[in-house]
Write a structure and sequence with these properties.
173 residues, alpha+beta, 34% helix, three-stranded antiparallel sheet
């Protein structure tokens, strides 16, 4: 005949087993939380780089394409201490200007690249302009028959581009 063995469980061993299970679940929770935090940090970095790239592409591409597509004269002039890219055009005998300029933010805050389309007789007014994009800084200048654009993003990245107007669109002095 077979003998049946009876095992007695000690109460201390049961407590250790419960503690081990609790610690295992707690470790899983802590490591899961760490993984989520690492993922958030990586995502934030990716978004920051994407935003920086968008600022550069938007600012440079917009200005360069506007210069290349200009049908009238193209020049850079100073208005109230702000360098302004002016794209002049004649519409039904009346002169109009597209003015593209960078308006710096106050106290080191990022500024905005802006555009204004008005009659050539209208005075320069930043309030009636449309925002194109945000940036830390945008420099617009004339250089050897070209328009030079330098964009500085929020994270300090600097990108430069040169645009040549159409042959029928000379750069004015």
């Amino acid at each position: 005949m077979e003998q049946t063995r009876v095992h007695y469980v000690r109460s201390g061993s049961s407590k250790m087993h419960g503690l081990f299970v609790f610690l295992l679940i707690a470790m899983f929770a802590v490591f899961s939380l760490m993984l989520v935090l690492i993922g958030m940090r990586a995502y934030r970095g990716t978004v920051d780089i994407s935003t920086s790239n968008a600022q550069v592409r938007t600012g440079l591409s917009y200005i360069c394409n506007r210069v290349r597509a200009a049908e009238g004269t193209v020049w850079v002039r100073d208005e109230q201490g702000v360098p302004v890219l002016v794209l002049g055009q004649d519409i039904e005998g009346e002169l109009y200007e597209t003015r593209i300029f960078f308006l710096p933010g106050e106290d080191g805050a990022k500024g905005t690249l802006r555009e204004q389309f008005v009659s050539a007789e209208e005075p320069f007014d930043t309030d009636s302009s449309e925002m194109i994009t945000d940036a830390r800084n945008v420099e617009i200048a004339q250089q050897d028959g070209l328009v030079r654009v330098v964009v500085t993003t929020d994270n300090g990245r600097i990108a430069t581009a040169f645009a040549r107007p159409r042959p029928a669109s000379p750069i004015a002095p």
